Amino acid sequence: MYAQILESPNLPESGDRDDVVPGQWAPRMSDRQFDFFRDLAKAQAGIMLPDYKRNMVYRRVSKRLAALKLRDFGSYQEFLLAPENAAEIEFFVNALTTNKTEFFRENHHFVHLASVVLPGLIKRQDTIRKLRLWSAGCSSGQEPYSIAMTLAETIADLARWDAKILATDIDTQMIEHGRRGIYPATEILPVPMRLREKYIDMQANSGRMGETLRSLITFNQLNLHGSWPMKGKFDAIFCRNVIIYFDKPSQCELFERFANLLVDGGHLYIGHSESLYKVTERFRPIGQSIYQRIA
Questions:
Q1: What one-character-per-residue DSSP string does 184-244 give?
Q2: Where are the domains of the chain?
Q3: Residues with catalytic function
């Protein structure tokens, strides 16, 4: 279940039993080490790790110990602080990010995109035919591929459009997964059969996203907490189940930046458990976890 942790000469004291991976010898994570890891996650990626996430941090950071053949968390802390090991920060952040996603998750967003947003854009941009969408926090790619299928199904002459989907995530491993566009057959089940047959090259146990979809999407690593290279405006942004990991000031800053990158009247989709209440006044709610930028 978890990466094998190198043996420690002694089991932790009984008071530290929450830190033990069942059936394995395990080092102890001190309060100071936990604080170091969560402070580093906040500084590098804006990720908030409250006390109740301690066991999750323990398990995920333990995998980095195993990969680097380090005996304890103190050694890993020293490893992270060494300038020559700066590249490890990326693996550390990757280990602490949560990547739960699926095709057409929260399907009402895609229904809204197809029935409201895209028809409006088609009517307004009959001559320009330019479309820009952003999947921010795309995880392993199911969200941008779902967006791409929605575009292909809704815009009959999509080949004549300058249509692009930007897919970004902080986790470089997830970005590579998305670029490959290959998923186990069980993960493709939420895709309706009609769309599977039309857009996915199915094999016995897996499926690869077809060229029609892959040509629409650009996958890039991006830290939402850092600088953004994008200059142009987006017609819609999907940022779902991401802000729950940020504190309120970081959320306020993030949605201010989103508003600046959306066209007037552009749309924003967030997760079902998220809200912009007391976060920003630059959007108005128009549906279940759907917002529109105020012009």
A1: EHHHHTTS-HHHHHHHEEE-SSEEEE-HHHHTTEEEEE--TTS-----S-EEEEE--S-GG
A2: 14-96, 108-293
A3: 60, 169
Q: Which CATH fold topology does 14-96 show? A: Chemotaxis Receptor Methyltransferase Cher; domain 1 (1.10.155)
Phi, psi of 210 (to 5 degrees): -70, 165
Joined tokens for residue 75: 């050694």
| Cβ atoms 196, 225 nearer than 8 A | no
> Which residue bears the tokens 């604080």?
35
**287-290 contacts: CB < 8 A, separation 24 or more?**
287/108, 287/112, 288/108, 289/106, 289/109, 289/240, 290/109, 290/112
pTM for the structure as a whole: 0.80
Give the integer Cα–Cα distance in Å for 198 and 149: 10
Alpha-carbon distance values, 151 to 17, 120, 215, 268 (Å):
51, 13, 12, 16
Instruction: Say how many residues make up the chain.
Output: 295
Q: Tell me whether the CATH fold assigned to 14-96 matches the one assigned to 108-293.
A: no
Angle at 18 between CA 13 and CA 19, to 5 degrees: 75
Fold of 108-293: Rossmann fold (3.40.50)
pLDDT tens track for 177-200: 999 999 999 999 999 999 999 999
pLDDT digits 0-9 by tens, 70-109: 989 999 999 999 999 988 988 888 888 877 789 999 999 9
